[in-house]
């Protein structure tokens, strides 16, 4: 007999499932009652009905929505945005969010930013998922809202680190905007008493030190934050020269050295030279320390030297010093070079020649001499002797001196002559020996290039 003969159509699936699941035999229908013919019923054993769990029902009859406990992403701080993370739910689930602080609803949406009034309270988010008519609601764990923090750049210092200059603190843009910014200037990391404004004028006490500024921000419900700028260069002041360079006398080919001592901090040096008879100072390439040192040449004689000292606070120039270079036989003065004898400033011009015979030249040059002081003599060259050395045989040929007169300044012109073999004339040198002032000075001899 078919079970369907007795069970109403709406009960047939349930009964069938129970039978198949529990392996019970056919169910016997109860005797017909005196009810209307249209009404029938099937008696299901209580054990069968109780043994059929809801989870065993087909999905089309309804199942629980898969869900997980949500979490809150981000630090719970005033001003910091929090994000709800639903977790793992059934694919296709849609969500809605409810944020609560201290148990009170404060916002909906996936994100929430705590405010000042939420400080110290606990925040949670409740996620409601929905799919195909099924819903589930889950709530996250709580987080306590702490004080907010500032996002702040490193402050900068504007201005030149020199005594007397004013520095200005540049705090940059802080987020959120602080209620108040405070400043403290520091020298070598130590607070400068009274230096608590945005501007600071450097005093002598900070000379040689590096300056920084500390900026402190405050705002209600936010942690106080401080940031310190990068340090300036060492504070300098206008250079001052304590020791001037001194004049130097050396033989040609030897090393000359001049030194300057200066104060001020952060100093840079540039040595300069002015040639005899010139008014223009020229920088010496690569000579940028407090000491000038170089190998001399005869042509350098009577050059003036000075050094320019500067830093961020200013520039100062030293007094000039004179370089006296004594000529040598291997390095004579070029013609027309002014040099110092014993008692006279002297210069020998270019050498000329006349043919005396087939084998001899008469060589000549003009020597101009002036006294070194106010003792003007009518014969400034009386004590000057000349000679000419042959280029190849190194033999000295005696010279003669001819008076060409004296000018109003006491400077005289002297013609010097020497008879020299033609083969020895070109490339030779003159010697000029100065005996003047021999009571005070020893005789000196200088050498000048001869016939080219």
UniProtKB/TrEMBL annotation:
Residues 1-29 form the signal peptide. InterPro entries: Ig-like_dom (IPR007110), Ig-like_dom_sf (IPR036179), Ig-like_fold (IPR013783). This is Ig-like domain-containing protein. Keywords: Signal. Transmembrane segments: none annotated. It comes from the Bacteria. Residues 239-323 form the Ig-like domain.
């Amino acid at each position: 007999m078919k079970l369907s003969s007795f069970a109403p159509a709406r009960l047939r699936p349930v009964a069938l499932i129970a039978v198949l699941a529990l392996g019970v035999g056919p169910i016997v229908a109860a005797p017909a009652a005196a009810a209307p013919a249209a009404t029938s019923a099937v008696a299901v054993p209580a054990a069968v009905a109780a043994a059929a769990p809801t989870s065993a029902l087909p999905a089309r009859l309804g199942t629980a929505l898969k869900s997980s406990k949500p979490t809150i992403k981000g630090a719970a701080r005033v001003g910091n945005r929090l994000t709800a993370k639903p977790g793992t739910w059934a694919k296709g689930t849609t969500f809605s969010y409810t944020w609560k602080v201290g148990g009170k609803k404060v916002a909906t949406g996936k994100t929430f930013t705590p405010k000042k009034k939420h400080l110290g309270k606990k925040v949670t988010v409740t996620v409601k998922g929905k799919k195909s008519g099924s819903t589930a609601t889950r709530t996250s764990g709580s987080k306590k809202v702490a004080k907010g923090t500032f996002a702040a750049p490193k402050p900068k210092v504007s201005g030149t680190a020199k005594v007397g200059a004013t520095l200005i603190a540049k705090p940059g843009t802080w987020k959120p905007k602080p209620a108040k910014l405070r400043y403290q200037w520091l020298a070598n990391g130590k607070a400068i008493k009274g230096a608590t404004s945005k501007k600071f004028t450097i005093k002598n006490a900070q000379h040689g030190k590096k300056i920084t500024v500390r900026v402190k921000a405050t705002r209600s419900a936010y942690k106080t934050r401080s940031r310190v700028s990068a340090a300036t260069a060492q504070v300098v002041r206008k250079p001052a020269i304590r020791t001037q360079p001194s004049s130097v006398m050396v033989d040609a080919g030897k090393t000359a050295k001049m030194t300057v001592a200066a104060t001020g901090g952060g100093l840079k040096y540039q040595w300069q030279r002015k040639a005899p008879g010139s008014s223009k100072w020229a920088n010496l390439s690569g000579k940028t320390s407090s000491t000038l040192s170089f190998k001399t040449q005869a042509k350098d004689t009577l050059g003036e030297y000075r050094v320019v000292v500067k830093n961020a606070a200013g520039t100062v120039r030293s007094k000039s010093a004179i370089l006296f270079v004594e000529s040598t036989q291997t390095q004579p003065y070029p013609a027309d070079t002014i040099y110092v004898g014993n008692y006279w400033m002297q210069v020998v011009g270019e050498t000329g020649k006349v043919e005396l015979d087939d084998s001899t030249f008469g060589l000549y040059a003009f020597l101009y001499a002036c006294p070194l002081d106010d003792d003007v003599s009518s014969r400034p060259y009386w004590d000057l002797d000349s000679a000419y050395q042959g280029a190849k045989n190194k033999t000295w040929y005696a010279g003669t001196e001819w008076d060409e007169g004296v000018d109003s300044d006491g400077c005289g012109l002297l013609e010097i002559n020497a008879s020299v073999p033609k083969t020895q004339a070109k490339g030779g040198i003159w010697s000029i020996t100065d005996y003047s002032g021999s009571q005070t000075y020893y005789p000196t001899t200088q050498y000048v290039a001869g016939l080219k």
